Amino acid sequence: MAYSTLAQEAIKCEICGMPSQQFCNNCQIILCINCIKSHVDSFPSLSHDIVAFKNRKIRLAFLECEFHPGQYCETKCETCHTAICTMCILSSVHQGHTKLELVKVVEAKKRDINKEIEEYEFKIIPKYQTSNADIEKQISKVSTECAETEYERERLRSIWHQEVDTIFNKIGSFTQFIKDYKLAALKTHQTRIRNLIQETNQKVNINKRFLSSTNPYEVANFVSTMKEQGDISNNYDVQLPCLKSNIIEGSELSIQYGEIQATLTESSQCSLSTGMTFLSTREISNKASVILTIPTRCKPLYRVVCVGKDEAFITGNGKNITRIDIRGSVLETFTTACCVMPSGIAVNCLGELLYSDCDSRTVNIVRHGQTENFITLPKGWDPYSLCCTRSGDILVHVSCVDRNKIIKYKGQTIALNIERDEKGIPLFQKGNFTLIMAENNNGDVCVSDVNADIVVVVDAIGSIRFRYDGTPAKRKKPFSPRCIVTDSLGQIIVTDVNNFCIHILDQNGHFLKCFDNHGLKVPCGLSVDSKGRLWVGLLDKGKVKVLEYLK
After folding, report:
1. What is the DSSP letter of 331?
2. What percent of the chain has pLDDT above 70?
3. Contact 397, 377 (CB under 8 A)
4. Which CATH number, 3.30.70.20, 3.20.20.70, 2.120.10.30, 3.30.70.2860, labels domain 282-550?
5. How far apart are CA 343 and CA 359, in angstroms?
C-alpha cells in the first residue's frame, strides 16, 4: 500500500474497512480497535507491536517461517533460492550455503531498479522521441517536395502541347506512387517507434511499482528487461527524383522524372509531335526475340554483367573474370587472387569492376588494371553476390555458417542490415546457396533466395513488401530462381533453371509474362544492357543469348 496519500484519504482498517487509527508495526497492517484482538488471535505465534497510526514504522513485512513458528524469514539462502529464518540457518539443511540478509538484497535490487528507471527516462525514451520528431520532419519534407513537383508538373504542362498529356499523367501517377510509398514506409517506422515508446513507458511504470514494493520476495526476484530493448534504425531514405525539363524553343522539348523520360523534337512546322519519342511508353512484347547468340569459353557460365550496350563481364569455374563484346571477342581477362573463383561480380556507375573473395572476406575493386581492397567483411561473415545501386551504394550477400543476410554499404560504412522482418523472423532461409540481388527504380531490393526457391522483395529500409513463389506462371516443374535484374520500367526479371524460362513481374509482384521458347536451357546468368536488352547466360552451354523483349 502507498501511504503517501493517506493524509488526503480516510484511513480505513484493512480487515473490516472501518475508520482506523491503529497500526501493527510487525505485520505492517492498518487496524481498527475492534479488529486488533482478531488480528492477534489469527497469528498467535507472532509478536504484534500495536501503535497509533501516526507512530507507525514502515519496514519490510517478513513472513512467519513455515517450519519454525514464531520466527520471521529475514534471510535469503542463495543456494536454495528461498527465504529462511534464524532457526533455518542453524539447521543442517542449509549448512554451508551462501546466505544474505533480505534487507540488503532488497536495498541492492532497488538501487539497480533506480538506475534502470534513469536509463529509460533520460536516455532511451528521449532517443525514441528524437527519432519520432525526425520522422515527422521527413514526412513534412516528402509532402512539401511532392507538392512542389506537382506545381512544376502543371507549369510545364502549359508549355507542352495537348498531345503529350499522356506523359504528364504518367508523371502524376508516379509522383503519387512515390508519395504513398515513402509516406507508408515512414509511417510504418513511426508506428513502430511509438509502440516502443509506449512499451518502454509501461516498463518504467512496472519498475516503479517494484521500487515502491514492500514485498521483499517480489523485489528479490526482479528480473531486468533492459537487454530485451531493441535498437532502431535511423536510416530514413526520403530521396526523391528531381523533375527536370529542357526547352529549346522551336526545336526540342524534353522532360525527365525518375525513370520516366520523354523527348519531343520538331522536324517541321506543320506538326509539333513529329519525331516524338517516349521512352517511358515502352511495353513488354508478346514474344521476345533472340537477336544474337554469343559463344564464350566459360563452361559452366555462372555470371553475366553488362557494361554499356555491347560489352559484359562473365565468370565461370576458375579465378578469371573475362570482358567480352557482343560478338564474343575477348577484350581483356583479369586474374583474381581468389583461391577458387570470385563469389560475385558487379559493375558500378563508373564502369569499374567489383568482385567478392570469400577466402579473404573482401570486396575488391579493379581500377586501371589494379586491384584495391574496397571492403573487408565483419569477422565470421563471407561475401558472395554483389549489386551496385544507382546511388553508388553496394549490396553484399554475406553468410555465416548457413545464416544469410544482405548488407548495404555506403563506401566502407555499413548503412543497413537486411536480415529480419519487424517481428524478428529471418527474411531469408538458411542454406549454402548464394542470394542474388537487384535494386529496383523505387528503391526496393529484389532478392532471389535460391535456398527457399522464392523471390523476396523488401523496401529501401529493409521491410518486407512481398514474396513471389512462381505459382502464377503455372509451370510444370517447381520454381527455381537464380539471377535477378530490374529494368527501366521497374519490372522484376528472374531466371528459372527448372523450367528453362524467364519470369517477369511488375514492381508490386504481379506476374506479367514468361519467356520460354528460345532454348534457354538452364538460364543462370542475367543482365540488362543500356539498350534495355536481356543478356541471358546458359550455364551448361557457356553461351549468352541477347533477347529483345520491349517494344
Report:
1. E
2. 88
3. no
4. 2.120.10.30
5. 10
